[in-house]
Amino acid sequence: MGYPEKYAMRHNHRITPILKNSDREVEWEFTAPRQGAYQFDLKLETMDDNKTPYLALSLRRDELTNPFGPVRKIVKLSSGLKSYTFYLPLDKGLNRGTISLLNTGPEPWKPFQASAIFPIVLKKMVVSIPEHRATIAPDFILIPVTNHCNYSCVMCSHGVPEKKPSLSHFPEPLAGRFINALNRSTTSCHVALTGEGEPLISPLFFRIVNDVTNPLVKFHFATNGSLLNDRNNKWIVKSPFSHVNVSLDAATPNVYRKIRNAPFKPVIQNLEQLSDAIKASGRSDLRLIINMTLMSENQNEVPAFIELAGRLNAGVTVNYLNDYNYFHDWLVERPEFRFDYKEQILVHNETLETTVTGYQKLARDAGVPFMIDEVMRPLLGRSPGGKLVRPSNELTNDPPISGCPYLWTGDWRGTFVLHSGGELGACCLQQPLGKVIDSLPLEEAIDKVWNGTIARQTRADILAGKIPEPCSGSNCLFVALQRLWNEKFYTVDSERSRID
Ligand code: SF4
């Protein structure tokens, strides 16, 4: 069976969203026919370029279900009648956001009243499902800054002697090119300095943050929290970070020790200090998040974890364990805990779904931002055909993989990865789309891969509902839902996935 006619027709459907002017910003509203990346084309007329302000297109998300806050794309304006293209990852249904002008001053960026700066006229705004080719560079980028670590958590390769990675930092020459590219950027960039290690161990981590002076670039990172000492916390609140994501996995010393093989109390003291430092700084654009990888051993700790987050004025993200064959012979035996990876993986069932809904309600009632982040590590089950799928009662006519936005744009859950060997992937689970060459400035080298044949074919496949080759080994949410969809409903129409 082919694709529903409705879906095929929507590829070229262009829709003008509802716009509403307020004092300081233009509000937009758009009902997306499906989840995925959308292209926003804005036509603006500006009369004076002396002040070189910036324009921000923001997507508002429910603060209580998204600890990371809104997704915001910023571009430097030039004078005259100009068109600007942005990509946003929208949910199916109603999406809301704003268009505003920003100053370039210290944090947080304050919206300007447009008329107070110079005349600017929004001539037109059109939203459409994007094409195979992305015209602008990726704006959420992950740099695996180091794989050195001072911890040995049971579910990480640092915790298993025979799986320990060979230790290295991200290469200096590539880091230098990256810093220069970020300083030249005229569009906003969110950079995750996170890899299979503890970023605060790496001198490069501090160098990248200190040497990037472009106000369009913001950083975030995941850490085990052990090195969030007074000196580092003071530096963090003065630096352009948007959030600090601390992996805790437990709300009690006993379970923390079992999973992370370290004492709980010093890390909690560090977090209390960081929370106080953020409060004292007055910054509303810097968030503290604590995260938990959910498994059999710690699933009962979620209510206490929410309470801990409330005390720390932090948001919570929860992920599930990875489910790949690679993890099925994974065993860590310690005096206090025997961790058998495959037995700890939670499997989708109705009871667990009800429990998780209960956690979401608990967090909402407590006013704690709480997100179960299933994009990269969904809760899986087996289909009747024996495939690893994400069971769902909500499959629609749209092929689920067409909802993956990451070949066009990132968000807090999915980022473009520049691996230490120069390979590039749209997310951390995807096989590389290519490798940057040395002879070009890094942004041009990235663009060659980002808009190259493999990337365009991958986009074409995703829009057509076909699992692309670079994503075929992944168990991400989109691939796992697509496997279920393929078994239940349709076969893939190969004609629709050919690139021009
Ligand atoms: S593996 Fe492919 S489909 Fe899955 S999140 Fe990454 S880019 Fe999207």
TrEMBL record:
Keywords: 4Fe-4S, Iron, Iron-sulfur, Metal-binding, S-adenosyl-L-methionine. GO terms for molecular function: catalytic activity; iron-sulfur cluster binding; metal ion binding. Transmembrane segments: none annotated. Pfam families: Radical_SAM. Residues 135-354 form the Radical SAM core domain. InterPro entries: AdoMet-like_SPASM_containing (IPR034391), Aldolase_TIM (IPR013785), Radical_SAM_PqqE_MftC-like (IPR050377), rSAM (IPR007197), rSAM_sf (IPR058240). Its cofactor is [4Fe-4S] cluster. This is Radical SAM core domain-containing protein.
